[in-house]
Specification:
Helix content: 25-40%
Distance between the termini: 32 Å
Oligomer: single chain
Order of helices and strands: EHEEEHEHEHEHEEEEHEHHEEHH
Largest sheet: 6 strands, parallel
Strand order of the largest sheet: 3-2-1-4-5-6
Structural class: alpha/beta
CATH architecture of the largest domain: 2-Layer Sandwich
CATH class of the largest domain: Alpha Beta
Length: 355
């Protein structure tokens, strides 16, 4: 299979690395800059999406975008026109909606909003439906990229390590969020509906004697993706996605984003680069049917020179896209992913299995 990865930044680099772990693929990369010497690619092109020749796409059996979200639609439309299967990490609800509408109209395969959340967390929600004997009334998806330890408040009161796009994080924090509530999909503000969440941390993740970690969860946009409509169709009454952070983060973000009206560039200046050495990722899904509760939690650590966020995000995309039908000629959903194959891929990559 010939696979093209557009964008060779942090996530693109990790995607190429993980593709190499899962198969003998011919990998092409494309970026507006020269390839990193450590990028394990067969061919690299320096180009801009808007200047890309249409014939170039015919080389590929699959196109993966790890570009900034605002470039996804331009690349996706070219893939749709040429019937080249396309997938991306998402990052914008309106952009993903446009891509899926075009693919449906022109009968082309696309799979948007793969990665961590949306992506891996949503596939875990699909697994929850399979594990419970009856349709649950409530499904909660929660996910967070966190520093591996908590800093003193005088060093970093935000307790956050920025490991991915500031534009993507800003959109999550300021855009409206969709939730399924009492059987209807409704919009709610971001940075709202706080709840406290306790997770049991595996021994090798703990940096102190506390086996249980307390976090706060709150609404952010985009993480639910197209899961909500599928859950509604399945008869589930309530479904939501929330971001996990250390306690205290939410109040600070409400102050700077809601009251002081910081933009993305100003928000980036709030997070220090030199406080935390490592990050970790928590992916948590809970489903409830009457008095029966199903809950699954995964922890991801840095490894092989990649951050936990890189490994969880790239691992989610690669594991999913290689576990779904790529010639369906329609937009794919998380329901299309073979759960067993997806989890086997994550295990082979070492992303899960050591908790």
């Amino acid at each position: 299979m010939n696979i093209a990865v557009f964008g060779t930044g942090q996530m693109g680099h990790a995607i190429v690395y993980m593709l190499r772990q899962l198969g003998n693929y011919t990998i092409y990369t494309c970026d507006n800059r020269a390839a990193d010497s450590n990028l394990m690619t067969d061919y690299h092109s320096v180009c801009d999406v808007k200047d890309m020749e249409h014939d170039y796409l015919h080389t590929f059996d699959l196109v993966i975008s790890s570009l900034p979200y605002y470039l996804n639609n331009e690349l996706a439309q070219k893939c749709i026109e040429h019937k080249i299967p396309y997938c991306d990490l998402g990052g914008s609800v309106p952009v993903s909606k446009t891509i899926n509408q075009s693919a449906k109209s022109l009968k082309s395969t696309v799979f948007t909003d793969l990665g961590l959340a949306p992506g891996w967390a949503n596939i875990m929600a699909e697994q929850a439906l399979l594990e419970l004997p009856s349709v649950p009334h409530t499904v909660k998806m929660r996910c967070g990229g966190l520093p591996s330890d908590i800093a003193p408040s005088n060093k970093d009161p935000f307790n956050y390590k920025l490991t991915w796009s500031i534009d993507g994080l800003y959109n999550e924090y300021v855009d409206e969020c969709q939730v399924l509530r009492d059987g209807a999909i409704v919009s709610v503000p971001s940075l709202s509906e706080r709840e406290m969440v306790r997770v049991v941390v595996p021994n090798h993740f703990r940096l102190d004697s506390n086996a249980t970690l307390s976090c706060e969860a709150f609404t952010t946009s985009g993480g639910a993706s197209h899961t909500l409509q599928h859950m509604k169709n399945a008869g589930i009454l309530n479904c939501s996605y929330k971001t996990l952070r250390y306690i205290g983060h939410l109040d600070l973000m409400i102050y700077f984003l809601k009251q002081k009206k910081f933009d993305a560039e100003q928000m980036a200046l709030l997070f220090k680069d030199d406080v935390f050495d490592e990050d970790m990722v928590i992916v948590d899904v809970e489903a409830v049917h009457n008095n029966l509760t199903y809950r699954q939690t995964h922890f991801v650590a840095p490894k092989d020179g990649y951050s936990a966020m890189q490994r969880a995000t790239a691992g989610g995309l690669v594991s999913a896209v290689l576990a779904c039908p790529l010639r369906e000629n329609r937009p794919l959903t998380y329901h299309d992913v073979n759960i067993e194959e997806f989890n086997n891929n994550l295990t082979t990559l070492g992303v899960i299995g050591n908790e």
